[in-house]
C-alpha cells in the first residue's frame, strides 16, 4: 500500500513537471523592436512651388471700335516703343463718318454766319423802331439755336475723328508683346483683347499655390527663388502681393514675389520658390513609426511598467518626405516603436534597443 502511494505521488509530480514544461514552451519570447524617445522640436512648414517670371505691369490691348483687321505689324516676342503702331482695322466707315461730320460742321458754320448777320440787322432796325421787339427777339432766338447746332456739329466731328483714331492700335508703353490673338482679315469687336503688352521695368515671380499650404498660416515674406535650370542662381526676394481670394478654376492662391533689380531674368523664365511658414513646435517621427488604429494614425507606445506596448492614436499636423509631425496623443520622452511594429498586438511584451 505504501508503495502505491509513493508511485501516485511520483506520477503527480511528473504530470506537474510536464505541465510546467508545456507552459514554458507556449509562452512567446518578447518581441524585439527598435524605439526612439519622443522629443519636442521646432519645425518649419515649407513647400517648393514652381512659378514664372512676369512683368509687374501688363496690359491687354484692344481696339475701341469694331472692324476687320487689315494690318498687323508685330508678333509675340517683339519689343515695341510707346506710340508705335501695332495693328489697324478697316476705317472706311469711320472715314465716312468724319466726312459727314465735317460737312455738318461747315453747314452749321454757314447758318451761324447767316443768323449773325440777320441778328445784327434786326438790332439796328429795332433801335430805329422799324421792326417790332418781337421780330428782334425771334432773330436772337434763331442765332442762339444756330450757335447750339454749331457746337453739336463740332462735338460730332470730334467724336468721329476720335473713332477714326481708334482704328489704329498703338503701344501705350515700352515693352514686349507676350500674347497675340488676331490675324489679318479677322473681324474683332470693340474691347476684345487682341495683344498683351508686358511693360519694361520691374519683374515679379508669380506662384499659384494650393490653398492647403495656407492651413499652416500665411507664408513668411522672405522667399528663396531660383531658375529651374540653374539652382545656383538662387536669390532671396520678398512677397509683394498675396491674393485675398482663391482662384475658382484651380483652387489656388496667387502670390507675387518682387525680384531684385540685379536679378533680371527674361520673361517666362520658369523658377522654383521655397515658401515657408512661421516655425512651430511638434514631435517629429520617422515614417516607420506610423501605424493605424481603425483607419486613424497611431503609434506603438511602450509601457515602462510591464514592458508591453499599447496602440496610441496621434494627431498628425503634417506629413513630410521622410517623417511626420505629431502635435497630440504622445508626450516628450515617450518611447515610440520605430521598427518591428508590424506584427505587434495590444499588451504584447517587447524587448527593445534604442535608435
From TrEMBL:
<keyword id="KW-0175">Coiled coil</keyword>
<keyword id="KW-0732">Signal</keyword>
<dbReference type="GO" id="GO:0015562">
    <property type="term" value="F:efflux transmembrane transporter activity"/>
</dbReference>
<feature type="domain" description="Multidrug resistance protein MdtA-like barrel-sandwich hybrid">
    <location>
        <begin position="58"/>
        <end position="193"/>
    </location>
</feature>
<protein>
    <submittedName>
        <fullName>Efflux RND transporter periplasmic adaptor subunit</fullName>
    </submittedName>
</protein>
<feature type="coiled-coil region">
    <location>
        <begin position="136"/>
        <end position="163"/>
    </location>
</feature>
<dbReference type="Pfam" id="PF25917">
    <property type="entry name" value="BSH_RND"/>
</dbReference>
<keyword id="KW-0813">Transport</keyword>
<dbReference type="InterPro" id="IPR006143">
    <property type="entry name" value="RND_pump_MFP"/>
</dbReference>
<feature type="domain" description="Multidrug resistance protein MdtA-like alpha-helical hairpin">
    <location>
        <begin position="99"/>
        <end position="166"/>
    </location>
</feature>
<dbReference type="InterPro" id="IPR058627">
    <property type="entry name" value="MdtA-like_C"/>
</dbReference>
<dbReference type="Pfam" id="PF25967">
    <property type="entry name" value="RND-MFP_C"/>
</dbReference>
<dbReference type="InterPro" id="IPR058624">
    <property type="entry name" value="MdtA-like_HH"/>
</dbReference>
<dbReference type="InterPro" id="IPR058625">
    <property type="entry name" value="MdtA-like_BSH"/>
</dbReference>
<feature type="domain" description="Multidrug resistance protein MdtA-like C-terminal permuted SH3">
    <location>
        <begin position="283"/>
        <end position="342"/>
    </location>
</feature>
<comment type="similarity">
    <text>Belongs to the membrane fusion protein (MFP) (TC 8.A.1) family.</text>
</comment>
<feature type="signal peptide">
    <location>
        <begin position="1"/>
        <end position="17"/>
    </location>
</feature>
<dbReference type="Pfam" id="PF25876">
    <property type="entry name" value="HH_MFP_RND"/>
</dbReference>
<dbReference type="GO" id="GO:1990281">
    <property type="term" value="C:efflux pump complex"/>
</dbReference>
